[in-house]
Amino acid sequence: MAIEKMEFVFVTAARDRLDDVLEKCCESGCFQIESAVSANTGGGERTLRLMNDRNPYDVPFKGLASIATELEIKLEETPYDKCKLETGTDFTEFCDRLEEQLAEAARKRQEARRVISERRAALIQITHLNGLNAQFDRIFSCKHVHVRVGKLPLESRRKLEYYDQNFFFVPFEHDSSYCWGMYFCPKNDKELVDDIFTTLYFEQVHIPDFVRGNTEEAFKLLEAEIAEQEKIAEKADREIKSFAAVHEEEIQRAFSKLCHKRSLFELRRKVGVLRDKVYIKGFIPKKQHKQFEKLFEGCGDVTLAFMPPDADSGCTPPTVLKNTRLTRPYSMLVEMYGLPDYTGYNPTAFVALTYTLMFGIMFGDLGQGFIIFLLGLVIGKKVHKNFGGMMTRCGISSMIFGTVYGSVFGYEDLLDPVFEGIGIDFLPLHPFHNTSFILLTAVGLGVALILISMILNIIIGFREGDIEKAVFSNNGIAGLVFYGSIAAGVACSMLFDVKIMSAPFVILFIVIPAVCIFCKVPFAIAVKYKKFRLSNEEENMTVGNFIVENFFEMFEYVLSYVSNTMSFLRVGGFVLSHAGMMLVVSTLMNMVGSGAKPAVLIIGNAFVMVMEGMIVAIQIIRLEFYEIFSRFYSGNGKPFEPVKAGFSTEIE
Amino acid sequence: MLESYSTNAVVAKIRAVCGTMLTMDDFREMVAKRNVAEVADYLAHTARYGSGLRDIDPNTVHRGLLEQLLLNENYEVYKRLCGYKGMTDSPFYTFLLKKAECSQMINLVNAISCGLQDKFVQALPRYVLENSRIDFLALAACHSIGEARAMLRGTKYYKLFGQFVYNEDGSVDFTDAEIKLRTGLYNGLTEDVKASCFGSEEKELLRLIRSEIDVINLINSYRLKAFFDYTPEEIRRSSLPFTQMGRKSMERIYASPDPERMRTVIGSSVYGKYMSADDEDVEPPLRKRTLATMKHTLARTTSAPIALYSFMYICENELRNVVRVIEGVRYDVDPAVIYGLLIF
């Protein structure tokens, strides 16, 4: 339950062996490549440069993807052993050959589509001229009359009344912004009238030359033309489809190989080159050392150098969580928050324990827990392994606490005879009869979890050598003593009537830790550097600023101690809410006839399981992330991503 | 009278519509557009102007038409808000139309004086044509102020046109005409407010209107001083006879010996909140101040007419910003410069 140990690998090879080396790295499935020239590279590598060659497979990749789209072929990963193409030029020639064979049919289809689109656009224009009975060609061929067809904004429609020039406007139809129509004027007044209409924002519509006859005739003519062109396009489509059927297998093979080659070539961007040698850096899990080494056996001029993970300061080692079978599904939640640093703490086991425990407490029901357990098994097998795994564990926890509460599918007294038979008289723990106990236990659980989180923070702080974090911070030793003392004082005086809040106790365990938290920065600087300074960042921080800043921080810490503790009340709240919801189901069952009772029971239970189960799951995630993780966990690790020459149809 | 106005529902509705207004991010996007077509397309896809621009073709729409459509959309929003709770019965309801009529009358006087009636007709907004009882198209056909006045018989403008002062060459004194028309407008608005509202609502509305007038007077007085070197007496004569700030304070500003001093005095007044020593013009900070007042008023008022009045000012300001963006993009002005001219 820690973090997988990694090794830094430095691969050196002759330049002509680069493709083989990269192929082997991909094949290993455990090599994470890093840029060979990092930002803080030392002087010895000054002449080492990254290979930034243009990827020769980019052009054929785009070409082949476009051909596949045209042929309506859905590209899928296919074995490509039979594909003889190797270089970028081979693939380009292959694309050219396909395009050449496809050209005639594609041209016919494109031309037909162009004509269809043009005719359809003309149809839309003519639609607005409904009501024009005269022939278009006759109107436009008038010798002494100037005509313009178009749309006039409704803004300007009334303004035409103002002009007393020699023109008239014939409206056909209008929408919410424009009036469609045409205006006529003598050819001699053309400039003047055009100018008026231009100032009124008249937009001319050009009726194409191919439109003949009046509106109705033009409609028929255009529709006939569209139908004819559609036939031509369909014929071309059929030709293209038969071409696709013949060549699909070949294209799929070629594309898969092309993808592999292209991805492999992309990896070169992280490879360093110096004269005739190439250098590749990366990480592998330490346990795969031998397997990795074995892959390169027989490659005489390839040298592998294995080093500790911190050998190169420019490369941050990736994090792989190492979990037991029991806790592995919960790594999903840790990854959701962010992976720990390579040298950090893996909190998966802690999450697994607290999540399962809290789920059981909040959703305790023997019957429903069993259903969740079964569902978890199915989901784990068929849908999502980790999610299913979490469900099975939470289901078992729910069953255990369901037994404690004596709740089976909402029947709160079904287990009473069992406990009586065994002779356990303090169980079952009916939530409604023990409300205060449940709520206080929830707060107690919260206090315990917060204290554990602080202890984890202290351990991590000491491991990192961060005195401020481990000793003086609100989650360090000072915070632990401060919070623990107040919690103990309150618990003793309220629950057990023991007065421990004496003056020495307060001074020693509350005031002194509070002063440490207040002055955590200067204290930490004093311990670490043996000098006095008020701030890490600001050299000239005044005492006044320091007091104001830390007063508000202190206020926030105290507030967060209280709010975070109270936040755990929801754990107890959901116990009561679950019992309450099942009480509603049972009341509803009593209200219906005996025939409908099973249906109400099933639907009620299903509803509670889905709704409450989801809410509880989300609430626990919230508690984990906000109240627990925020105290000790940063989650800024780097995920482990082994290189692979994958299949992708995406064109960047 | 205005009981139906004074409902939280109307105010809530106005605030809801306010939520659809263009944000600073929208303006940032628009100033970065390459041409007017792209700006038109962007506006056509906003909740604020989408319905008014749904039929336009962004690629062919003319800049002038686009501005007119936006203006109309503003009026449509106003009409919808007024119609929401039967606000149409109150005389105050027509304040936007009255303001628009007044502006068009000023344009008309100018157009008739310069013989530019065609331009006047071209720029005439559709909502004025459709909603005003004055026939502006018939007025545009007039060739003299006297002819226009005769046509305005029976309206309040008849009397105002009769008070115009004429120059020696027989042309109308345009500055004087503008002041008289604006004075008429604000007198009318004040009467409408007094007839429609009472108590604190009346006071607040009058405060808003007078503050708006103060800002107009301040902008004009600064321009007259800076560009025409007017004397305090001339500035006083060219100002509207209303004030919120007080006559003495206004007099002190008018009496400034030079533009720099005038800027300093305005800066130290209640309207000088956004003014700085680097400002070359007083208009942007003064408009910003008015906008802030209107926004503040809209945020806290529970009165429908006050909310409506302040909201329409905010809309007008937004429209001015949009027009600036359209013009800036049209003339290929640097996006940062256009953005700097906007008032938020």
Highlighted features:
heterodimer; A: 652 residues; alpha+beta; four-stranded antiparallel sheet; 21 helices; extended; B: 344 residues; mainly alpha; 18 helices; 0% strand
Describe the structure.
The complex is a heterodimer of chains A (652) and B (344). Chain A is of the alpha+beta class. Chain A contains 21 helices and 12 strands. In chain A, strand 6 and strand 7 form a beta hairpin. The two termini of chain A are 40 Å apart. Chain B is mainly α and 344 residues long. Chain B is built from 18 helices and no strands. Chain B starts with 7 loop residues before the first helix and ends with a helix. The mean pLDDT of chain B is 87.
Write the layout of secondary structure elements.
The complex is a heterodimer of chains A (652) and B (344).
Chain A (H helix, E strand, L loop, with lengths): L1 E2 L2 E9 L3 H11 L3 E3 L14 E2 L7 H13 L17 H40 L8 H5 L4 E9 H4 L10 E7 L3 E9 L3 H10 L3 E2 L10 H52 L5 E3 L2 E9 L3 H7 L7 E5 L13 E2 L8 H7 L10 H15 L3 H17 L2 H21 L10 H7 L12 H30 L2 H6 L4 H19 L7 H16 L1 H10 L13 H25 L1 H23 L5 H36 L20
Antiparallel strand pairs in A: 1-12, 2-10, 2-11, 3-10, 4-9, 5-7, 5-8, 6-7, 9-10
Helix pairs in contact in A: 2-3, 2-7, 3-7, 10-12, 10-21, 11-12, 14-16, 14-19, 14-20, 14-21, 16-17, 20-21
Chain B lengths: L7 H11 L5 H8 L4 H9 L18 H22 L10 H20 L2 H7 L2 H6 L4 H5 L4 H7 L4 H7 L11 H23 L2 H30 L3 H6 L9 H8 L4 H10 L14 H18 L3 H27 L4 H7 L3
Helix pairs in contact in B: 1-17, 4-17, 5-6, 5-11, 9-10, 10-11, 11-12, 12-15, 12-16, 12-17, 16-17, 17-18
